[in-house]
Amino acid sequence: MKKLFFSVLAALLLGSIAGRMSSPVLGLEVTFYNASELMIDSLHLEFGSADTQSSIRSFRIAPGTSRTLALNHNPGMGFNVVVSYGDGSRQEFCALLGDNQTRPRIQLKP
Fold this sequence. Notes:
Structural class: alpha+beta
Mean pLDDT: 89
Number of helices: 1
Largest sheet: 4 strands, antiparallel
Low-confidence stretches: none
Strand content: over 45%
Distance between the termini: 60 Å
CATH class: Mainly Beta
Order of helices and strands: HEEEEEEE
Number of domains: 1
Helix content: 10-25%
């Protein structure tokens, strides 16, 4: 009986992990990597379509670390990014326009 219980438990656990790894992504899961030696004080994303406009802010991304953000936005449509660094400098750009990745990684460096 115990062997059956643990076999079922292991199958459920493996199925859950496999399902999470292969499930389709709705929108984007963008990973921002701070490739600089400066703290990123804030990261501001703006994106939208004909019917909606969205904004996401993330704060304090240490040098050498990353942050993954989920966007309810179709791949390839692009979005605006404003990065504010600890020394007061700013970086602004349009990211991923025409890029259809659903889990992209963006390196940030002033």
